[in-house]
C-alpha cells in the first residue's frame, strides 16, 4: 500500500510558471512519487525517485500517463536524495517540456500530452510534503 499525500487541483500552471515542493524523505524510504498533469488520468509528468524499488536503486524514473496507458520510461542517473533527509524540487513548466530542478542538477522531460495547463499535483509514497508554492 502506497501512502497517498495531499492532492492539489486547479493549480493553473502555465508555461513560464513553476511549482516548488519541499518535504521530508522517510528514513526507510523505498520510493516516492510526484505527479503533475491535467487530472489524475492525464499525467504530463510522473516523477518517481527510487531508492530501492522495482529493480532500480538510487534512480529517478520519469514517465507520462494517458488514462491507463504509460509512455516510455526516462531514467536519470543523478540521485540527490537521502533517506531521512529533506528534499526541494522545482518543476518549471515550459512550452514543450517541464524542467525539473533538483539540488545541484536539472533535467527536462517532454510535454508528451501537449498539456497547455497543469492543474493537478499529488505526492505518494515515502515523502512527507512540508510546503508547496507556485509562481
UniProtKB/TrEMBL annotation:
Annotated coiled-coil segments of the chain: none
Nucleus is among the record's keywords: no
Domain Galectin: start-end pairs: 5-135
Residue stretches spanning the membrane: none
Annotated keywords: Lectin
Molecular function in Gene Ontology: lactose binding; laminin binding
SMART domains per the UniProt record, alphabetical: Gal-bind_lectin, GLECT
Cleavable signal peptide: none
Superkingdom classification of source: Eukaryota
GO cellular component terms given for this protein: extracellular space
Gene3D superfamilies with a match to the protein in the record: 2.60.120.200
PROSITE patterns per record: GALECTIN
Listed PANTHER family: GALECTIN (PTHR11346), GALECTIN-1 (PTHR11346:SF97)
Protein name per the record: Galectin
